[in-house]
């Protein structure tokens, strides 16, 4: 659209945790207090019937300020109102087997345990507005109906922790409570995203809880293993998981949550890398079965948005509470480092122009974080694009505007055509009192 295009930053490799999974939770060879005849009885029982594991996914990061609707179709990768439904039944296992996902890890654990699996649903939607009741009920029913009908021996769930539904601000807690009513004694393991907003009901209903240790997230598989292995140990009588959780009145800014810090030359430090490393150390040293710090999801107008820590130990409640407090104190003590001071846009654009004039500083990236669809943004706002155009910046690659109608207009005009159209700003944001502001632009269609 009149802007010269350039592509930057493709193919960047991501850093990975170097971690030996098997070493995280070595299973004890002997267990105090367990009599040989009990072991024998369990072995006989096990030989009679294969255990059945229920594995399912319900995942959504709810930005309650977002105008982007979250209906059932969004959980199936479809457009709102399209009628698409999430993957269900054996297709879930077929799709996730052998993948480095949370569901993939749970499937591996089931195989390792010699269990059959039932996979009632895998429902995962990109971040967006409050989840519609009908979508939540559909997903809950799929899981709960299977709990009631199949009577699984274990339930392993990949959840997010920041799902807010029209009728329930803690979607995960509501699901877990419904499951518990049907299966009061069935072992339950859950994984949660680091952006979980934690509630009592989650801790009360799940036996083992594990959250990601990385942001950007790249340890979904490892997290499911961290949740699942202690549950298997519990089922075999080798562990008695007890959970302690707590929070602090902190809403860490997403721009200060990275665990990649420090980047060379970065002008500030973020505290999360050291805190997550300490949580991992608690697990690897055997102090805790599982230790997780959740930075919370701040774009949610709910009562429990914010930072929390959850520690699961082997039967030692006092130790779990002490480790939880150690992690929370680390977070609170570094609270100033979780604050991000946004730079006014005109100043940022001015600084970008200065930096662009210095050859070694290129490329310069202007980031409109709150228009990030990975946090529930619309990608429909035009504020930064307007500032770039008003400032006369050139040699700019702009990414991107969500505007299907504009795409249709350009497609109709064809490559090489010059046209004027109204771009972006089609969605209002009533939750923050903003109306959309389309940009009237003239440009050339370079490619489709
Ligand atoms: Zn997240």
Order of helices and strands: HEHHEEHEHEHEHEHEEHHHHEE
The overall pLDDT, averaged over residues, is 88
Instruction: Label the overall shape.
Output: globular
Give the bound compounds.
Answer: zinc ion
DSSP strand tally? 11
Secondary structural class: alpha/beta
Q: Give the number of domains.
A: 2
Report the end-to-end length measured between terminal Cα atoms: 12 Å
Q: What is the share of helical residues? A: 25-40%
Low-confidence parts, pLDDT < 50 over ≥5 residues?
1-44
> Mind describing the biggest β-sheet?
6 strands, parallel
Task: Tell me the radius of gyration.
Answer: 24 Å
Strand content: 5-15%
Can you give a write-up of this model?
The radius of gyration is 24 Å and the shape is globular. The protein has helices at residues 36-48, 90-96, 102-112, 133-150, 171-182, 200-205, 220-235, 272-284, 317-333, 345-356, 383-390, 404-413, and strands at residues 52-59, 116-118, 122-124, 154-159, 188-192, 208-211, 241-247, 290-294, 308-314, 418-423, 439-444. Strands 1, 2, 3, 4, 5 and 6 form a six-stranded parallel beta sheet that branches. Strands 7-9-8 form a three-stranded antiparallel beta sheet, with helices on both faces. A two-stranded antiparallel sheet has the order 10-11. The protein is of the alpha/beta class. Helix 3 (102-112) runs parallel beside helix 7 and helix 4 (133-150) packs parallel to helix 5 (171-182). Strand 5, helix 6 (200-205) and strand 6 (208-211) form a beta-alpha-beta unit. It contains twelve helices and eleven strands. It folds into two domains: 21-338, no CATH class; 345-444, no CATH class. Zinc ion binds at residues 193-195, 217. Zinc ion (ZN) binds at residues 193-195, 217.
């Amino acid at each position: 659209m009149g802007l010269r295009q350039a592509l930057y930053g493709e193919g960047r490799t991501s850093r990975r945790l170097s971690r030996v999974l098997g070493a995280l939770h070595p299973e004890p060879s002997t267990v105090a207090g367990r009599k040989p005849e009990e072991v024998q009885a369990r072995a006989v029982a096990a030989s009679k019937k294969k255990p059945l594991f229920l594995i399912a996914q319900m995942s959504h990061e709810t930005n309650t300020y977002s105008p982007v609707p979250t209906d059932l179709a969004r959980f199936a990768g479809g457009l709102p109102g399209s009628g698409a439904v999430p993957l269900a039944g054996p297709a879930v296992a077929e799709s996730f087997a052998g993948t480095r996902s949370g569901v993939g890890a749970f499937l591996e654990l089931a195989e390792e345990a010699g269990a059959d699996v039932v996979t009632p649903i895998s429902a995962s939607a990109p971040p967006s507005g409050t989840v519609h009741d009908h979508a939540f009920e559909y997903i809950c029913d799929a899981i709960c109906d299977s709990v009631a009908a199949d009577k699984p021996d274990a339930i392993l769930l990949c959840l997010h922790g920041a799902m807010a539904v029209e009728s329930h601000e803690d979607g995960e807690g509501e699901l877990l409570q419904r499951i518990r009513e049907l299966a009061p004694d069935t072992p339950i393991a859950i994984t949660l995203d680091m952006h979980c907003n934690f509630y009592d009901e989650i801790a009360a209903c799940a036996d083992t809880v594990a959250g990601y240790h990385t942001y950007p997230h790249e340890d979904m598989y490892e997290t499911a293993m961290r949740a699942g292995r202690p549950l298997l140990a519990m089922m075999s009588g080798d562990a008695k998981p007890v959970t302690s959780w707590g929070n602090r009145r902190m809403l860490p800014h997403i721009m200060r949550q990275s665990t990649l810090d420090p980047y060379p030359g970065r002008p500030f430090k973020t505290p999360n890398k050291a805190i997550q490393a300490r949580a991992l150390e608690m697990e690897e040293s055997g102090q805790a079965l599982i230790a997780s710090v959740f930075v919370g999801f701040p774009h949610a107008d709910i009562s429990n948005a914010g930072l929390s820590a959850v520690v699961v130990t082997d039967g030692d409640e006092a130790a779990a509470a002490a480790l939880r407090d150690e992690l929370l104190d680390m977070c609170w003590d570094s609270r100033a480092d979780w604050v991000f001071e946004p730079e006014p846009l005109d100043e940022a654009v001015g600084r970008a122009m200065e930096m662009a004039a210095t050859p070694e500083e290129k490329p310069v990236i202007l980031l409109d974080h709150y228009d990030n669809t990975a946090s529930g943004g619309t990608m429909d706002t035009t504020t930064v694009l307007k500032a770039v155009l008003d400032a006369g910046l050139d040699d700019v690659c702009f990414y991107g505007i969500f505007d299907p109608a504009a795409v249709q207009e350009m497609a109709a005009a064809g490559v090489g055509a010059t046209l004027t159209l109204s771009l972006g700003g089609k969605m209002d944001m009533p939750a923050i009192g903003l109306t959309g502001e389309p940009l009237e632009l003239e440009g050339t269609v370079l490619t489709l």
